[in-house]
């Protein structure tokens, strides 16, 4: 009996500790290289990751922060040119119509080269 309880608690711990969160509020810096010098601001940037739901069926994976950051880097002039993002924040966006909806995770911040 004692082994069963320990086993169940262990399983609950394993499955509950693997969650990742797709939100960020006012993250000071997301850096993409090891250069610590101050960069040149290129202005506000925006990256998003979206999925479509049609008639209750989701097409694609759930939106993730990683894909939103990658899209923000592409918008900043390419993956190599954007060195870091300051004041990064995520929000949910999209729309919900009767038959279909668009779910997006949007990352905004200030990009630097």
Explain the overall architecture.
This protein has 113 residues and is of the alpha+beta class. It has one domain. The chain is 23% helix and 42% strand. Strands 1-4-5-2-3 form a five-stranded antiparallel sheet. Strand 2 (41-54) and strand 3 form a beta hairpin. The chain starts with a helix and ends with a strand.
Secondary structure layout:
Layout: H1 2-16, E1 27-31, E2 41-54, E3 57-59, H2 65-75, E4 84-96, E5 100-112
Antiparallel strand pairs: 1-4, 2-3, 2-5, 4-5
List keywords for this structure.
113 residues, 5 strands, 2 helices, alpha+beta
Summarize the structure.
The chain is of the alpha+beta class and 113 residues long. It has helices spanning 2-16, 65-75; strands spanning 27-31, 41-54, 57-59, 84-96, 100-112. The longest helix is centred in the N-terminal third of the chain and has 15 residues, at 2-16.
Give the strand tally.
5
Give the integer mean of the pLDDT values: 78
Order of helices and strands: HEEEHEE
Structural class given helices, strands, pairing?
alpha+beta
Quick one: overall form?
Answer: elongated
Catalogue the unreliable spans. 10-19
Largest sheet: 5 strands, antiparallel
| Count of spatially separate domains | 1
Number of distinct helices: 2
Straight-line distance between termini: 60 Å
Strand content: 35-45%
> Measured on Cα atoms, how large is the radius of gyration?
19 Å
Strand order of the largest sheet: 1-4-5-2-3
Specify the helix fraction band: 10-25%
């Amino acid at each position: 009996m004692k082994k069963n309880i320990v086993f169940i608690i262990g399983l609950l711990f394993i499955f509950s500790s693997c969650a990742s969160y797709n939100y960020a509020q006012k993250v000071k810096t997301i850096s993409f290289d090891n250069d610590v010098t101050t960069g040149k601001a290129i202005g506000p940037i925006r990256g998003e990751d979206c999925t479509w739901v049609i008639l209750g069926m989701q097409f694609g994976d759930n939106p993730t922060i990683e894909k939103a950051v990658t899209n923000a880097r592409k918008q900043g002039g390419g993956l190599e040119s954007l060195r870091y993002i300051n004041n990064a924040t995520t929000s949910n966006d999209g729309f919900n119509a009767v038959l279909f909806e668009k779910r997006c995770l949007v990352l905004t911040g200030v990009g630097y080269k």
